[in-house]
Design brief:
The complex is a heterodimer of chains A (480) and B (453). Chain A is an all-alpha fold. Helices cover 65% and strands 1% of the residues of chain A. The chains are: A mainly alpha (480), B alpha/beta (453).
């Protein structure tokens, strides 16, 4: 294992953290708030942590393999989470470190689960920082590193693969660096567009930016206690559509960009994704019709909630905790499906679900015709057995992890609905659940132990389980 | 610059590695998903899985914007068809590997013209040409020619008794009347571009550049001269062996070929009736001794088995054959055999990838001020020798070389003006239309002006 290369890359990540901290620092200075000191301290600490390794520990060998890729990704995310918790603790706005850690992990993993009882009391600098972690975590911190670092070997693809969600990773252009750049450019452009449209609807700049960050990363941190409920229907529709957009595979946007419009709409994943969305909206609208005065309002709320839950964002325009059971079950199912692979969303990912269903179909055919030979295709391309195996393997691990987290939470004095939805909402990076962790309440009541367990659940959800599990397996660290 | 490579066998992979190192945007196509996933995990390229003559697939690989397509699958016909389609679909240049001897006669130029191929490569023929050059000057490990053979560079290893070791380059220049330049030295793992104070040691692998006649003169003076090989034994009746034997026999040498497959032996002897063809296992030392291996001028092991080639070569060297060459395809085995003392190794895939790198680099700077005429990778790719033709806009024109600000590890090792070759000294100048041979270690030169600071 190439320890030096891991250490070097992580040191450089710390420097990146320092650079990124400049933005919230600037915001806090603009608003003249006291929390700027907390950002300065944190910036200094990350510089101290990052500089020696970057300057004096240049690795001779740059070769890394899958294992190193996983370790770099895990270490980077854990360190970013710890560093990110510091501004909250130092400024005293979230004095408890575990709470701050939970909040930042929730931000970076684009979950949006909060322990804050009243967000509106927070300073602008920290609110901006919270939403900014969504934006950075959405596309991935290491993808950002790839886009800006000069020296990369072909094997850096292992890092990208470990951080980008989805069963199949496809490069857009031959070079990793260019691929990472294109992804960030699309991400940046879409975010800017949303900020612009929100400003048009009369939202102020600060709120537009934070909400755009929350949507882009499919995170869900807002700046108001009632999330999006107090905004105009226009603004709610804009956010609905942008949540849906950020749940689409970014590779498909690239196809649009280079003019392959037919290929864009022919993507099976996109079609199924939109199909599930439309079907869920229709079912929920019918189910909640009598709760709202007009059909338009019922449609707006159900579209918003379905879009928010499916893309694992977690904004809310209404307290869906009060909805009938049928709607809540649909939302719970949507939580685990998630959005498209290669987007900023969490969950199982639609493409995995498609492959799983095709696997079931194949299994049944195999039972009917034991000697039949069946292949599984996605977008007209045959999938090899390695991909199929990894998808079914992932599903098994996914279910097992869900069960484990659920079990860990069972010590809490909450009902089953609360614990189950908290498990789903954190592991799939959504944020609000049902019961005591519904959209108008928060996670503050959980014990520190459960908060840490949920933090790891969020990280596992974001990094698709394996990197984190691998890091804590003794076999990874053994020499032979 | 975008390049598409079809077929990722031994050659395809080596070419991919080289092109990525040169900084091109590479897309590879292969029909085996395992090969594609291995190659995309190792190199920074896009892999597309499927048949290289599938138009849709080629379009997906971005053929319309590709500057160059290299088709190196195992099948000649597939390569040709692939290049043809690619050309029609917008690729600007195409290179196909065409190895079947039946295509490599008069029909080749016809096909090349009508398929619009920029170049066809025949790995076996290229390897044979390389071997032939070495056998003509057996004291050298490799011989590279520049400017239509007006200038050469040979690599030799300094044996323990060599008269060159222990002297600085300045002393050597005074001592011998021959005009030559020691332009690169490999010592252990390091490669040096030496200056006048550099002292040679035994075991050094040095590159000497000069005109062919001067090189002969020098080799004779330092007692390294060997006559070109007259009696050659070749193990393995491969295509390379066929091309090489033909060249050797046309040049008046006697060739003995050993192969254990009777059908191949028969075919070989039908093609080249003048050669002595022996059916037998070359690993059997008895057989080789019986065929008087000890009296050969050169022994070449060209079977498909790297390990066998290495072992038999050591045996041949032990029998006192003055020139032993082993064909080794795997990089790892090659460097291991070199460490064990096998001097002369030929790797067909390397020969080809040199040719292709040269072509691609020339393509890239065909818009620049000067063109790469020839390119050789020396000392296992750690140094490069390039030949440029000087254009009138080169900024260093008419400036004495001692006043030129050259980058580190760059040496101007020769200037060919018309038919006259100049071993450059400080007072020489570069003029337009000169062929300049530049040696660089650790850098990649795209353009002649790259040598200046």
């Amino acid at each position: 294992m190439n320890h030096r290369m891991i250490f070097y890359t992580i040191s450089r990540m710390m420097l990146l953290a320092a650079v990124l901290l400049i933005l919230p620092l600037a915001v806090s200075l603009i608003y003249g708030e006291a929390c700027y000191a907390a950002f300065l301290w944190t910036l200094g600490i990350s510089l101290i942590l990052g500089l020696p390794g970057t300057l004096f520990c240049k690795p001779k060998k740059k070769l890394i393999y899958v294992k190193e890729g996983f370790l770099i990704v895990t270490a980077a995310w854990l360190l970013f989470s710890v560093i990110g918790a510091l501004p909250f603790v130092i400024s005293g706005e979230i004095p408890n470190f575990v709470d701050a850690f939970f909040e930042v992990v929730s931000g970076l993993t684009t979950t949006g689960a909060s322990i804050l009882a009243n967000v509106e009391e927070m300073s602008h600098g920290l609110l901006f920082f919270r939403s900014f972690t969504h934006w950075i975590g959405g596309m991935g911190v290491l993808v950002l590193v790839m886009a800006v670092l000069p020296d990369l070997s072909g094997r850096s693809i292992h890092i990208l693969k470990a951080e980008m969600p989805g069963p199949i990773f496809g490069k857009l252009v031959p070079r990793i660096k260019d691929t990472a750049k294109i992804l960030y450019i699309i991400y940046f452009a879409l975010t800017l567009l949303e900020i612009f449209l929100l400003l048009l609807g009369g939202m102020n700049l600060f709120e537009s930016v934070t909400h755009a960050f929350g949507t882009a990363g499919t995170g869900g941190f807002g700046v108001k206690a009632d999330s999006i409920a107090s905004y105009s229907p226009y603004l709610q529709w804009v956010i609905t559509i942008f949540m849906l957009l950020f749940g689409i595979n970014f590779n498909l946007f690239y196809l649009l960009l280079i003019g392959k419009i037919r290929a864009f709409f022919r993507s099976a994943e996109l079609r199924v994704y939109l199909g599930i969305f439309v079907a869920a909206v229709i079912l929920v609208t019918i189910n909640v019709l009598q709760l709202y005065p007009t059909f338009a309002e019922a449609l707006r709320h159900s579209a918003f909630q379905v879009s928010s839950i499916m893309t694992t964002t977690g904004y809310a325009t209404t307290d869906f905790n009060l909805w009938p059971s049928f709607s809540k079950v649909i939302l719970l199912l949507l939580m685990s499906i998630g959005a498209c692979a290669g987007s900023t969303a969490g969950g199982l990912k639609v493409s995995r679900v498609i492959i799983l269903f095709r696997l079931i179909h194949r299994e049944i055919r195999q039972l009917l015709h034991p000697r039949s030979v069946n292949t599984i295709k996605l977008d007209g391309k045959q999938l090899d057995e390695t991909t199929l195996r990894s998808v079914s393997g992932y599903f098994a691990v996914y279910m097992l992890t869900t069960a484990m987290i659920f079990l860990l939470l069972s010590f809490e004095p909450f009902d089953l609905e609360t614990n189950l939805s908290a498990t789903f909402a954190c592991f799939n990076n959504i944020g609000p659940g049902f019961g005591a962790v519904g959209p108008v309440s928060n996670y503050a009541a959980y014990s520190p132990f459960s908060k840490i367990a949920l933090s790891f659940a969020m990280l596992m959800g974001r990094l698709e389980i394996f990197p984190l599990v691998l890091t804590f397996l003794p076999g990874t660290w053994k020499k032979n | 610059m975008q390049i598409v490579i079809v077929g990722c066998g031994k050659i395809g992979t080596t070419v991919t590695e080289d092109f990525v190192a040169e900084g091109f945007d590479v897309t590879v196509i292969d029909k085996d998903p395992a090969v594609i996933s291995a190659i995309t995990n190792t190199y920074d390229v896009i892999g597309v899985c499927g048949n290289g003559v599938d138009c849709e697939l080629l379009a997906e690989a971005g053929i319309a914007k590709a500057e160059l397509l290299v088709a190196v699958t195992g099948s000649d016909e597939l390569n040709m068809l692939c290049c043809f389609l690619a050309r029609k679909m917008g690729a600007k240049h195409t290179i196909a590997r065409i190895r079947n001897p039946e295509y490599n006669d008069q029909s080749l130029s016809f096909m090349r013209h009508h398929l619009d191929l920029s170049m066809s490569i025949n790995p076996e023929l290229l390897a044979a040409q390389e071997l032939f050059k070495i056998l003509k000057m057996p004291s050298a490990i490799t011989v590279e020619t520049f400017s239509r053979r007006n200038y050469e560079m040979v690599e030799v290893v300094l044996r323990p008794e060599s008269v060159l070791s222990g002297h600085s380059l300045m002393e050597l220049r005074k001592k011998y009347s021959a005009k030559f330049l020691v332009c690169v030295v490999q010592r252990g793992e390091n490669v040096y571009i030496p200056d006048g104070n550099f002292v040679l040691q035994e075991g050094d692998r040095i590159g000497i550049s000069a005109t062919p006649t001067e090189i002969h003169k020098l080799l004779r003076q330092i007692g390294l001269m060997q006559k070109s090989a007259k009696n050659v034994m070749i193990l393995g009746a491969s295509r390379t062996a066929y091309y090489l034997s033909k060249m050797l026999m046309d040049n008046g040498s006697a060739v003995k070929v050993v192969d254990k497959d009777f059908a191949r032996c028969e075919e070989f002897s039908a093609l080249l009736p003048g050669a002595v063809v022996i059916e037998g296992d070359g690993v059997q030392q008895e057989l080789l001794l019986e065929e008087s291996i000890d009296r050969m001028d050169a022994f070449l092991s060209l079977t498909g088995m790297d390990e066998g080639n290495i072992l038999v070569s050591f045996f041949a060297a032990a029998q006192g054959v003055p020139k032993v060459i082993a064909k080794i395809n795997s990089n790892e085995l090659g460097s291991m055999a070199e460490k064990l003392g096998l001097e002369c190794i030929i790797s067909p895939k390397k020969v080809i990838s040199d040719v292709l790198s040269r072509y691609a680099r020339a393509l890239k700077n065909s818009l620049g001020s000067s063109k790469v005429e020839t390119l050789y990778k020396l000392m296992d790719g750690r140094a490069e020798a390039l030949e440029f033709i000087v254009t009138p806009d080169f900024p260093g024109l008419n400036i004495p070389l001692q006043n030129l600000n050259l980058k580190k590890n760059i040496l101007i090792s020769g200037i060919v003006r018309g038919r006259k070759a100049i071993i450059p000294s400080g007072s020489d100048v570069i003029l337009p239309d000169d062929h300049v041979i530049v040696l660089g270690a650790g850098t990649q030169l795209q353009d002649l002006s790259d040598i200046l600071l």
